[in-house]
Amino acid sequence: MKNTMGKLTGVTAGLMVCALSLCSTGCQSWIAGQTLPSPHYLSDDIQYFPRGPEFRLTNTVRAHEAYRLEQEAIEAGLAE
Questions:
Q1: Which of 35, 53, 61, 73, by CA, is between 20 and 30 Å from 80?
Q2: Taking a C-beta distance cutoff of 8 angstroms, is the pair 28, 35 a contact?
Q3: Backbone angles phi, psi at 9, to 5 degrees
Q4: DSSP of 30-54
Q5: ∠ CA 13-26-17 to the nearest 5 degrees?
Q6: What percent of the chain has pLDDT over 90?
């Protein structure tokens, strides 16, 4: 009876370790140097990011032009 109980305890402990390792894995897996996505990535919700402006420095150019016009007005004596 002791031998059967020991084997049952060993099998139960092994199954618990397997269940814990399966539950503790994250969304991604690392196999042979590759980071692979979760198997559920196809059923994940889709996020939409609208396309931004092609030229990303629009505000900077606008500020430089305003500064240049202000400096020209100061040099011409039009601004105080």
A1: 61
A2: yes
A3: -65, -40
A4: EETTEEEPPTTGGGSPP-------S
A5: 5
A6: 21
Task: Give dist(CA 69, CA 61) in Å, integer.
Answer: 12
Diameter of the chain measured on Cα atoms: 107
Element (H, E) at 29: strand 29-31
Distance, in Å, from the CA atom of 62 to the CA atom of 65, rounded to the nearest integer, reads: 5
pTM, two decimals, is 0.33
Instruction: Give the Cα separation of 10 and 78 in Å (integer).
Output: 92
Q: Could you tell me which residues come within 8 angstroms of residue 29 by beta carbon, excluding any fewer than 6 positions away?
A: 35, 36
**Better-predicted residue by pLDDT, 13 or 80:** 13
